[in-house]
């Protein structure tokens, strides 16, 4: 069974939009494109290499695919040669309901992201790794199809932009597998899916009269 692995660069307030540059995705009036670039350091590079050092295929949303297809096929022999060669060599699964022209060699269209990814997970093959692709990730979260989340949490607050988590994610627990803090303050954490959400209770065994009144007020207010 194949794993679905999310790789996500996020701000402290959960924004993923346009980490790589000002022209990457300015939609919605986003003015902070390139917010990750000043924070890149040796630890960041090592952890990216780990993420893509395992056998993998790419799993991308339409907009991220268009960004990647306009860049990575032309990036070999440059400063990111190793990543470019890896991305160009692997299969690219693209979630798109539109008639997107798949110009990048090795690209395969997925017309129903949830159903198609669920089917791919049952096949033999390498892990399916996302980058960017906020809408796709939220679809996968809603269908509980994500096995692992790799977060690169950057010490910035962006205020607005496309976010990693939205309403509608299937509830579930995750377990921290590894973590590092980079010299530039990035927190890099890997989480694996870990069953159902567990709950507890800090309330007194016998609630006070004030607490009973508070609960009754909440029920009345709906």
UniProtKB/TrEMBL annotation:
Residues 2-187 form the Bacterial bifunctional deaminase-reductase C-terminal domain. SUPFAM superfamilies: Dihydrofolate reductase-like. Signal peptide: none annotated. InterPro entries: DHFR-like_dom_sf, RibDG_C, Riboflavin_Biosynth_HTPR. Pfam families: RibD_C. This is Deaminase. It comes from Halomonas sulfidivorans. The lineage of its organism: Bacteria, Pseudomonadati, Pseudomonadota, Gammaproteobacteria, Oceanospirillales.
């Amino acid at each position: 069974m194949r794993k679905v692995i999310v790789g996500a660069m996020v701000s402290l307030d959960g924004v993923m939009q346009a980490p790589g540059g000002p022209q990457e995705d300015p939609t919605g009036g986003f003015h902070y494109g390139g917010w990750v670039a000043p924070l890149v350091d040796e630890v960041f590079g090592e952890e990216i290499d780990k993420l893509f050092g395992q056998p993998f295929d790419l799993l991308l949303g339409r907009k991220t695919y268009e960004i990647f297809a306009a860049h990575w096929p032309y990036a070999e022999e440059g400063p990111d040669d190793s990543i470019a060669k890896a991305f160009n060599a692997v299969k690219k699964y693209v979630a798109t309901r539109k008639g997107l022209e798949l110009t990048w060699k090795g690209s395969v269209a997925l017309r129903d992201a949830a159903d198609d990814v669920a089917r791919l997970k049952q096949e033999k093959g390498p892990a399916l790794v996302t980058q960017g692709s906020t809408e796709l990730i939220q679809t996968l979260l809603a269908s509980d199809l994500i096995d692992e989340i790799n977060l690169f949490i950057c010490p910035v607050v962006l205020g607005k932009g496309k976010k990693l988590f939205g309403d509608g994610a299937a509830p579930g627990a995750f377990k921290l597998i590894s973590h590092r803090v980079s010299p530039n303050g990035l927190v890099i954490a890997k989480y694996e899916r870990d069953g159902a959400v567990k709950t507890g209770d800090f309330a007194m065994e016998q609630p006070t009269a004030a607490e009973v009144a508070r609960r009754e007020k909440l029920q009345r207010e709906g």
